[in-house]
Design a protein that fits this description.
Elements: E1 5-10, H1 17-28, E2 38-39, E3 54-55, H2 58-66, E4 70-76, E5 79-84, H3 85-93, E6 97-101, H4 104-113, E7 119-125, H5 129-139, H6 144-160, E8 166-169, H7 175-190
Parallel strand pairs: 1-6, 1-7, 2-3, 7-8
Antiparallel strand pairs: 2-5, 4-5
Length: 192
């Protein structure tokens, strides 16, 4: 039986990880598995229960978290988000390749729960903070407080870059090169 693996994509805000994630899903979608996360936030228009998220109350989420039902969980913007442990374990046991975008707190939790032979970390490096700050502000206005939080996350994630199994450099105007690079890395990692 083939061995399952959790592929994680991490990078600072503004690094282009969402673009690269969409590319990987398009190219390898039939070879990858996806686990639906849980959240305590209300569904937004167009979101589908069980596909976008599993929607639960804060109390239900806290009960699940306290019972060890998540491999990774965090709170963002007053809402909880978590990846169900049983779904990840089942997928890995069945030889599936899971693909997840992750942030630094989630990576640390997963790293503590899963042996390295069952996961790989791909890091997206979009450049220095000033460069990413321009990208971030070019997408939408942001308060100084929000920007400070993004910079703090940037510093933490850049400090973890050396732990990545692969680093993809995503420079402005060179998205196609970054897409080719990550496609090659993923192909090598999953053996297809």
């Amino acid at each position: 039986m083939k061995k399952g693996m959790l592929l994680m994509l991490m990078g600072p805000s503004g690094s282009g990880k969402n673009t690269l994630k969409a590319h990987i899903e398009k190219v390898f979608g039939d070879k990858l598995s996806f686990v639906t996360s849980y959240t305590s936030r209300a569904p937004r228009p167009g979101e589908i229960e069980g596909k976008t998220y599993h929607y639960v109350s804060r109390g239900e989420f806290e009960t699940m978290r306290d019972a060890g039902k998540f491999i990774e969980s965090a709170e963002y913007g007053g809402n909880y988000y978590g990846i169900p442990l049983d779904a990840v374990q089942d997928a890995l046991k069945n030889g599936n390749i899971l693909f997840r975008e992750i942030e630094h707190k989630g990576y640390q939790q997963i790293k503590a729960a899963v042996s390295h032979d069952q996961y790989r970390l791909i890091f997206v490096d979009g450049g220095d903070w000033e460069h990413l700050k321009r990208r971030i502000l070019g997408r939408a206005p942001m308060s100084e407080n929000e920007l400070a939080l993004r910079k703090e996350s940037y510093n933490i994630e850049m400090a973890l870059k050396h732990e990545a199994d692969a680093v993809i450099v995503n420079e402005d105007g060179k998205v196609a090169a970054a897409e080719r690079a990550i496609e090659s890395v993923v192909r090598d990692m999953i053996g297809k």
